[in-house]
Amino acid sequence: MSQQQLVEDIIREVLKTMYKSPQGAAPVSAAPAAKGLCPDKDYPLAAKRPELVRTPTGKSLADITLEKALKGEVKPEDVRISPETLRLQAEIADGVGRNQFANNLRRAAELTAIPDDRILEIYNALRPYRSTKQELFAIADEMEFKYNAKINAAFVREAAGVYERRNRLRAE
Fold it and tell me: To 5 degrees, how large is the angle CA 122–CA 150–CA 87?
């Protein structure tokens, strides 16, 4: 057994114990996800379903090799995670009952459409006392309508409301 297989087996065992219900209740089962992914047979995707994993530039995992990187055939944008891969990982997480983690992966999938520098600006704007409620709502509208990041837009709107209730907005 290779070291990688050993690590994967250990992770799988830890995940199984995380989802056992307390005091003898029935454990959470690894149910098939919406697209038919089954955590028991499809996780980890890179090893068990590599044909499903593609980079944002369309490269498959087989296209990403050290040799190709050294030749300059693999660029930094070729090794970023794609929104589809994040959604597939979310399905796997849903399949083992890790719904909050799955939702985090879906939010991350949406954020891949937003340029990195804009993400940092939004992050700074979300810090307490940095933005007005109207500025946060404008960010939410931008996320929803420009980048189709509806889940994240709702999160920013919710944050604006919480900041307002807790008096954490920048004075106008």
Answer: 100
